[in-house]
Write a structure and sequence with these properties.
Bound molecules: pyridoxal-5'-phosphate
Number of domains: 2
Number of helices: 13
Shape: globular
Number of strands: 14
Low-confidence stretches: none
Order of helices and strands: EHHEHEHEHEHEHEEHHEEHEEEHHEH
Strand content: 5-15%
CATH architecture of the largest domain: 3-Layer(aba) Sandwich
CATH class of the largest domain: Alpha Beta
Mean pLDDT: 95
Radius of gyration: 22 Å
């Protein structure tokens, strides 16, 4: 059995640290060991690494460096944004119930944070959902109609790109519609970073979340960028760091590595292969020819060129993944494993798929080091796996 996947098609879950950055990363490990709050030279060096990373991050996503807050990743950033919106609403008017409007396809970290706020006895936030169409695209017209009827929301949360389908959302329209009614917005930009250029200043969202490990920085580092009226943040993790808004000693090494990746990307290095979109289209066409009943999710929508999410009628996606793993291919499913049972993807259910189709789905997501032979390997083994599992 191979110990490491020869073919790694799971970049939407996590991307490897680029090998060309290993020497610089080693230097950062040596330079950034001290506590950035210490006043001695070593501490000041760690502090400088964090400030430089904030400059790189702000330049990459077009916001002000002082509005970048480092976190443990996008899950924390998402929780923090929702918490801040609800807390600010309660501070303004303790007797009013805070109201959140969340898209049906948000990452679990948004969905569960919203549910937790709804369950909290002091907030009891009211939750409402924004629907998507069969291709997984937010129904902007439904959102506009709703806002025209009822604009009393404390936050609208919509992701820029869906992590399962790779479908790109009409985020400019969503934010513009919300702003025209004075409603604050949160955008989960985790799958956008490095794949689609983003300008937060132009977009105008109040909160935007990012994660390092999806683009080759280490896991456990992300940031939340804020802008707009009030720039509202209320502490979720208490302590004196980061203006008293996010306690806990910052991690200068990981933060600096995140900054380094963004700086390199900003210079046009660490680019994705040019052929990605053509490869994806050929991969999908050949897969559909070879496997009857293969359904590509979000096919008609604008999608990231690196993502293919496919259902195989009649079989279990996790079984497909295990068989692919035995062949040295790493892919992923959209299902979340909860207390021993596999839940069908909430994204596919929101798109109108039935549970069986949702459970049968597998995601292939390519990255910087992907080449066409990686897809060929999948095309070589996948039809046989599906046939065997279907008992044919
Ligand atoms: N949001 C989206 C869209 C994601 O794809 C992920 C990662 O799976 C997250 C949030 C959570 O990111 P992190 O692993 O940094 O907590």
């Amino acid at each position: 059995m191979p110990s490491l996947a020869a073919v790694y098609l799971d970049h939407n879950a996590s991307a490897p640290v680029p090998e060309e950055l290993f020497p610089e990363s080693e230097k950062l490990l040596k330079q950034g060991f001290a506590n950035p709050s210490s006043i001695h030279e070593a501490g000041r060096r760690s502090r400088r690494l964090i400030s430089e990373a904030a400059e790189h991050a702000a330049a990459f996503v077009d916001c002000d460096p002082e509005d970048v807050y480092w976190t443990s990743g996008a899950s924390e950033s998402n929780s923090w944004a929702l918490h801040s919106a609800v807390q600010s609403a309660l501070e303004k008017n303790p007797s009013r119930v805070p109201r959140l409007l969340i898209s049906a396809i948000e990452h679990e970290s948004v969905q569960l944070a919203a549910k937790a706020l709804a369950a909290r006895s002091d907030s009891r936030a009211e939750l409402h959902s924004i629907p998507v169409d069969a291709d997984g695209v937010i129904r902007v017209e439904a959102l506009k109609t709703r806002l025209a009827r009822d604009a009393d929301w404390d936050l609208i949360s919509v992701m820029h790109v869906n992590n399962e389908t790779g479908v790109i959302q009409p985020i400019e329209d969503v934010v513009a519609a919300a702003r025209s009614h004075g409603v604050p917005t949160h955008v989960d930009c985790v799958q956008t970073l490095g794949k689609i250029p983003i300008s937060l200043k132009r977009l105008g969202a109040n909160y935007a979340t990012f994660s390092g490990h999806k683009i080759g920085a280490p896991k456990g580092v992300g940031f939340l960028a804020i802008q707009g009226e009030g720039k509202r943040l209320t502490a979720l993790v208490h302590g004196k760091q980061q203006k008293g808004l996010r306690g806990g000693t910052e991690n200068p090494v990981s933060v600096a590595m995140f900054g380094l990746v963004l700086s390199e990307m900003g210079k046009g290095r660490l680019a994705y292969p040019k052929g990605l979109e053509a490869w994806r289209d050929e991969f999908e066409a050949k897969m559909r020819d070879a496997i009857p009943g293969a359904v590509i999710h979000g096919k008609r929508a604008r999608r990231l060129p690196n993502t293919t999410y496919v259902g195989f009628e009649g079989i279990d996606g996790d079984g497909v993944l295990m068989n692919l793993d035995l062949e040295g291919v790493a892919a992923s499913s959209g299902s979340a494993c909860t207390s021993g049972s596999v839940d069908p993807s909430h994204v596919l259910l929101a798109m109108g798929c039935d549970k069986a189709m949702a459970r049968s789905s597998v995601r292939f997501s390519s990255g910087r080091n992907t080449a066409w032979p990686d897809f060929e390997k999948v095309l070589e083994v996948l039809p046989g796996i599906v046939r065997r599992m279907r008992g044919l």
